[in-house]
Design a protein that fits this description.
Blueprint (H helix, E strand, L loop, with lengths): L22 H9 L5 H6 L4 E5 L13 E14 L5 E7 L4 E7 L4 H4 L5 E11 L2 E5 L2 E4 L13 E5 L8 H15 L9 H4 L7 H9 L4 H32 L10 H9 L7 H14 L6 E6 L5 H14 L3 E6 L2 H14 L7 E4 L5 H12 L5 E5 L1 H4 L7 E7 L6 H10 L4 E6 L5 H7 L4 E5 L9 E6 L4 H13 L3 E5 L13 H12 L5 E4 L5 H12 L5 E4 L12 E6 L7 H8 L9 E6 L5 H12 L3 H12 L1 H5 L18 H17 L9 H11 L10
Parallel strand pairs: 4-6, 9-14, 9-15, 10-12, 10-13, 11-12, 13-14, 16-21, 17-19, 17-20, 18-19, 20-21
Antiparallel strand pairs: 1-8, 2-3, 2-5, 3-4, 5-6, 5-7
C-alpha cells in the first residue's frame, strides 16, 4: 500500500512518496543508490562550497574566497581550446571579470542585464579582480534578495546528468530534522566524549548542515569511527570465537624435526623467512588454532615457509591440505613441493578435476584412510564431502579468493585445524586489519639474496618488431624468454593469442630456435612436459597465457614480454614480472601496451615506477578503488562507507583497540548498554558470522 505524503518518515520509507519526487526523479535517484529516506541520510556530500560574506568588488582581496552581487554588462565566448566564457560584472563600485573554462551553455545562462550572486577564489587579471570558474546564483528580477552577511557552507552531493546536487541537497535539508532522530545511538556520551566523538545523530546533522568547516571534520571523523567500530567488533567476535572455541592439535616442532626440514631446503632462509617461521612455530605449538596470514612479494619464499608448517604437521602424524584457487596453480604447487620432498618419505597426492573417476575415487579413499600426508588441490577440496583422516593444518593460497565465511566453514567441517593463508598480492596494513582482520599477520619483506632487479619498459604495438629484435639479442647469448599473451586462440577482439604467436615465432621470428607453448586448455601432462623442457633449457622461448603467473622458477629466463599488457590487472602484471630476475643475469620486462584508457595508462606507469609489491598494491587501491579490490567474499569490508581505509590509520587502530576491549569485557554483547549495537551487528552480519559469536 502506498503511504500518504503526510505519513511520518521511517528509515525504509520509499522516496517515491516524498513531495517533488515523481517517477522520473525517483529513477534518477535510484541510479545513485537512493531509494529510501534512510539512503538520503547516508548520502554524504562529496565536497562543500564556502560562501564568504558579501562585499563590494573594491573590498575584495586576492587569494581569498569572496562573494559579490552585481549585473552582467558584457559577455564573450572564445571557441578555442580550452573553450572560454568571459563575463564582465558591475556591482556599482567597480567591475570584475568572471571566467569559466570548458563550461558549455554559459552564454545561454549569463548575458547583459542578468543579475547574479558570485562566490569563488579572488584573483587578478589584466589589472582587474577576477573569479575563475566561480559558483553563481541567478537573482530574480524585481526582487531584492537578502544580503549574505555571514559565511555559510553549502554541501555538494554526488550527482549525475539526470538529477542535480542542488535538488538532492534540497531534498535532504527538507527532511533532515525528521530523519536525524531516527538514527540509533550505539554508545553513550560518556564513552564517546573522551575519544572526541559526537553522537551519531549529531554527526549526521552536521555532515549535512554544517555551520563551519571544523564541524564537517568532526562529523566525518565520528562517522568513520562508527564505521570502523562496527567492522572491528565483528573481527573481534570472530577472533574471540576462535581463541575460546574448540582446541587444535599441538604440532611437533622439536629440534630433530627442525633439522630434518632444513635438510630438505637447498638454500639458506632469509631473516624475514626465519622470523615468520618463529611466529608460526609459536602458533602451532599451542591449543588455540593458528589463524595466520603470510604476506610476501613475488619470489620472497612464502611456499618454503608454508612447507615448514606442513612438515611439522606430518611429523605429528597429521594430514595437511594445501588449497589453491585454480587447478593450474595447484599443479604448480605440487611440482614445486615434490622437488623439495624428492628424498623424503612424505606421501603426497594431487586432487583436481583432471583426474579420472577411478583416480579420484582412489585419491579420496587414500585421504580418508590416512595413506597420504599432504593433499594438494583447489579450494573445492575443503568443501567437498570427502573426509580427512586427521587434518591438522590447512594452507590456503591466494587468500583473497577464500574469505572469512569459507574459513569459518573450514573450522566447523574439519575439527578446527590450524590455518595458514598466504597471498602474493601484498596489501596495506590498514586494509589487512579490515579485510583479513580475523587473521594474525606475518610479512616476508625481504627477497632471497641473488634476486636481480628487473628493468621494466613500455613499448607501443608499432614497436613490436624492435622488441623481438632485443629478445633475439638475449637468445643469442644463451638466455631464455617468456612471452605472455591474453588469449589462447583467435578471438573477436583480435588479441595476440598463444596458438598464433607460437606459430609466428616458430615459422618466422625465431624459426632457428625451439619454441614452446602452454595454456589452460592443455591437459596437465602436456603442460608439465613443456614446462620441464623449458626448465631444462631445451626451449628458447615459452609462449604462455597467465598459467605461468606463479610457481615457475627458471633462472636462465631473463626477459618477459607481455603482449596487450593493458588487458592485465596491476597485481597480475607484477606477478608475471616476478617470473624473471631469478638468476645472476640482468633481467627485463617489456610491456607492449596500447594505453587508450586512463586506468590502463596508470597501471603501465606504475609497473615502470614501482618494483615492490607493496607499492604496487597501494597504487592498485588508488586506481581501482576499495570495493573492486576487496571483492564480495571478504564479508564486512564493503560496509566501510564513511572511512578512508588508506588515510584513517590512527582512527582504525583506535577502533581496533576499543572493539577488542568491548569484546573482552562482554564477549556476546549481551550487556544492556550494548543491546542496540548487538541488534545492528546481527542485522548486518547475522548470516556471515557464527551466531554463537554474538550470543
Amino acid at each position: 500500500m502506498t503511504e500518504a505524503p503526510n505519513t511520518p518518515l521511517r528509515w525504509d520509507t520509499p522516496l517515491t512518496i516524498l513531495p517533488g519526487v515523481g517517477p522520473k526523479r525517483a529513477a534518477a535517484l535510484a541510479n545513485l543508490g537512493l531509494t529510501t529516506a534512510g539512503d538520503l541520510l547516508d548520502y554524504i556530500p562529496r565536497d562543500y562550497l564556502q560562501y564568504a560574506p558579501e562585499a563590494a568588488v573594491t573590498e575584495l582581496k586576492s587569494d581569498t574566497i569572496g562573494t559579490v552581487r552585481g549585473t552582467i554588462i558584457q559577455t564573450r565566448l572564445v571557441r578555442r581550446r580550452p573553450l572560454r566564457f568571459e563575463a564582465l560584472l558591475d556591482d556599482g563600485t567597480q567591475r570584475c571579470v568572471l571566467t569559466w573554462f570548458n563550461m558549455h551553455g554559459m552564454d545561454k545562462k549569463l548575458y547583459p542585464g542578468v543579475r547574479v550572486l558570485v562566490t569563488g577564489k579572488v584573483g587578478q587579471y589584466d589589472g582587474r579582480v577576477q573569479f575563475v570558474n566561480p559558483r553563481f546564483e541567478l537573482q530574480p528580477e524585481g526582487v531584492d534578495a537578502p544580503t549574505v552577511t555571514s559565511a555559510r557552507i553549502e554541501p555538494v552531493y554526488p550527482a549525475n546528468s539526470e538529477i542535480s546536487s542542488h535538488f538532492i541537497a534540497m531534498l535532504i535539508q527538507r527532511h533532515l530534522s525528521v530523519l536525524v532522530p531516527l538514527v540509533q545511538e550505539w554508545y553513550p556520551e560518556a564513552y564517546l566524549a573522551p575519544r572526541g566523538m559526537l553522537s551519531r545523530q549529531q554527526a549526521y546533522s552536521l555532515i549535512h548542515q554544517p555551520q563551519e568547516v571544523l564541524q564537517v571534520t568532526k562529523a566525518k571523523r565520528t562517522l568513520a569511527y562508527h564505521d570502523f567500530m562496527t567492522q572491528q567488533l565483528v573481527v573481534a567476535l570472530r577472533r574471540h570465537g576462535i581463541q575460546t572455541g574448540p582446541s587444535a592439535q599441538r604440532l611437533r616442532i622439536d629440534d630433530l624435526v627442525d633439522q630434518r626440514i632444513r635438510r630438505l631446503v637447498p638454500f639458506t632462509l632469509t631473516q624475514a623467512q626465519e622470523r615468520v617461521i618463529q611466529e608460526i612455530r609459536h602458533d602451532i605449538s599451542g591449543r588455540i588454532p593458528m589463524n595466520r596470514l603470510i604476506q610476501g612479494d613475488v619470489g620472497s619464499g612464502k611456499t618454503v615457509v608454508a612447507l615448514y608448517a606442513m612438515l611439522c604437521a606430518v611429523a605429528t602424524k597429521m594430514q595437511t591440505a594445501l588449497m589453491a584457487p585454480t587447478e593450474i596453480l595447484a599443479e604448480q604447487h605440487y611440482l614445486s613441493i615434490q622437488r623439495y620432498l624428492a628424498n623424503s618419505k612424505v606421501r603426497m597426492v594431487l586432487v583436481t578435476g583432471s583426474l579420472s573417476a577411478a583416480e579420484r575415487e582412489k585419491a579420496l579413499a587414500d585421504i580418508a584412510n590416512g595413506k597420504v600426508d599432504l593433499i594438494i588441490g583447489t579450494h573445492a577440496l575443503i568443501t567437498e564431502s570427502n573426509n580427512f583422516s586427521n587434518l591438522g593444518l590447512v594452507v590456503v593460497d591466494e587468500q583473497h579468493k577464500f574469505g572469512v565465511n569459507q574459513r569459518a566453514d573450514l573450522r566447523l567441517r574439519h575439527g578446527h585445524p590450524h590455518t595458514l593463508v598466504m597471498t602474493a598480492t601484498p596489501i596495506p596494513r590498514t586494509l589487512a586489519m579490515t579485510v583479513y582482520g580475523d587473521l594474525d599477520l606475518s610479512v616476508i619483506d625481504e627477497l632471497p639474496p641473488g634476486r636481480q632487479p628487473i628493468h621494466t619498459r613500455k613499448a607501443i604495438p608499432a614497436n613490436r618488431p624492435e622488441v623481438y629484435e632485443f629478445v633475439r639479442s638475449l637468445l643469442v647469448q644463451g638466455a631464455q624468454a617468456y612471452v605472455v599473451v591474453p588469449a589462447v586462440d583467435e578471438n573477436a577482439d583480435d588479441l595476440a593469442h598463444a596458438v598464433g604467436v607460437h606459430k609466428e615465432f616458430q615459422q618466422d621470428i625465431f624459426k632457428e630456435y625451439r619454441i614452446g607453448v602452454v595454456h589452460g586448455r592443455m591437459n596437465r601432462a602436456e603442460r608439465q612436459a613443456v614446462m620441464e623442457q623449458f626448465r631444462r633449457g631445451e626451449l628458447a622461448v615459452l609462449v604462455a597465457t597467465t598459467v605461468i603467473e606463479v610457481g615457475v622458477d627458471v633462472p636462465n629466463a631473463v626477459i618477459m614480454v607481455i603482449e596487450h599488457a593493458e588487458r592485465f590487472g596491476l597485481a597480475q602484471l607484477h606477478q608475471l614480472r616476478g617470473r624473471v630476475g631469478r638468476g645472476q643475469a640482468k633481467s627485463y620486462c617489456i610491456l607492449i601496451a596500447d594505453t587508450t584508457t586512463e586506468d590502463a595508462r596508470q597501471r603501465i606507469e606504475a609497473m615502470i615506477e614501482f618494483k615492490s609489491g607493496f607499492d604496487i598494491a597501494q597504487k592498485d587501491l588508488e586506481i581501482r578503488g576499495m570495493g573492486h579490490l576487496i571483492g564480495t567474499e571478504q564479508s564486512g569490508a564493503s560496509d566501510i562507507r564513511f572511512a578512508d581505509l588508506l588515510g584513517d590509520t590512527r582512527l582504525l587502530n583506535l577502533a581496533q583497540r576499543d572493539a577488542r576491549a568491548i569484546i573482552t569485557e562482554d564477549p556476546q554483547l549481551l550487556a544492556p548498554n550494548h543491546t542496540l549495537l548487538h541488534q545492528h551487528i546481527r542485522r548486518l552480519y547475522g548470516a556471515t558470522i557464527s551466531l554463537a559469536d554474538v550470543g
